[in-house]
Design brief:
The protein has four helices and ten strands. With 264 residues, the chain is an alpha+beta fold. It comes from Lentibacillus salinarum.
């Protein structure tokens, strides 16, 4: 009996080792996916257009709202819905024994669950600098100079109800995963420069391309009809007709530029 137990424990350990190894490898890959490459530079100090940080309002549920949303099985994470619940005041009479009623609050996106988050470091081309040294007698240096003001806009990838609410929830989850300044709009000002230089040898033509990076966030939104349920002097939330819809979004990275240098 002891021998059989020993064999079972040994087999369990053998099966667990590769699983743990894969988990660690996946975690390392996820971390590497959000590491800023060396060819992507922060231009927040050099940018001639001051971008405003798109800070999301953190709405804390009131004591009553927290009690109400804790009483339902579906997570309610929509900041605008939480704010609405905070501001809603329904007070049944303490002597309303036997009273029952349902108050319709509306159909809302309740929460967003992220399935995948990636960064495209070359989301949108914003600039190109060139230096022709084909007829030159010595090597020359070229640097990045933004020729025109560029506005980079993010957006949802498909149509969906309550897009503003959903964009807020997607941005909050993306910011939790990525330690970079994210916003649905960012601007690179004209004549923005960076000190990094690139060598163009004799008999060569150099081209320096600049790109704005962006995060691609994809996941699923849960919708539901929200009701206040009144039973006597007790209040609760009821959610009906729950549906789910897949959604994606592009969210630009503020004040970062990805460079690609080529010689011909």
């Amino acid at each position: 009996m002891n021998k059989q137990l020993y064999i079972m424990v040994l087999m369990a350990l053998v099966l667990l080792i590769p699983v743990n190894g894969l988990a660690e490898e996946k975690e390392e890959k996820d971390d590497d996916a959000f590491e800023v490459p060396s060819h992507v530079l922060n231009i927040s100090k050099e940018n001639t257009y001051p971008n405003s940080t798109e800070d999301q309002e953190v709405v804390e549920p009131s004591e009553l709202t927290k009690e109400l949303i804790d009483g339902v099985d579906i997570p309610i994470e929509n900041p605008d819905l939480i704010k609405t619940l905070n501001e809603t005041s329904i007070n049944p009479s303490p002597i309303s024994f036997g009273y029952r009623g349902m108050v319709y609050i509306g159909r809302w996106p309740l929460n967003y669950k992220s399935d995948e988050t990636n960064i495209n470091w070359e989301y949108q081309k914003i600039n190109s600098n060139e230096l022709n040294n084909i007829g030159g007698e010595s090597d020359q240096k070229m640097q990045y100079n933004q020729q025109e003001k560029k506005e980079i806009k993010g957006a949802l990838t498909n149509k969906i109800a309550n897009p503003d609410d959903i964009k807020k929830m997607m941005l909050l989850q993306a910011k939790d995963k990525i330690d970079l300044p994210l916003a649905y709009t960012t601007v690179i000002g004209q004549n923005t420069e960076k000190e990094n230089s690139y060598n163009v040898p004799v008999k060569k033509h150099g081209e320096l391309k600049a790109y704005a990076p962006a995060v691609n966030e994809r996941g699923q939104v849960t919708f539901g009809e929200v009701y206040f349920q009144l039973k006597g002097n007790k209040k609760s939330i009821v959610i009906q007709n729950v549906t789910k819809q897949g959604i994606g979004a592009w969210i630009p990275v503020q004040d970062h530029v990805s460079f690609s240098f080529q010689l011909q």
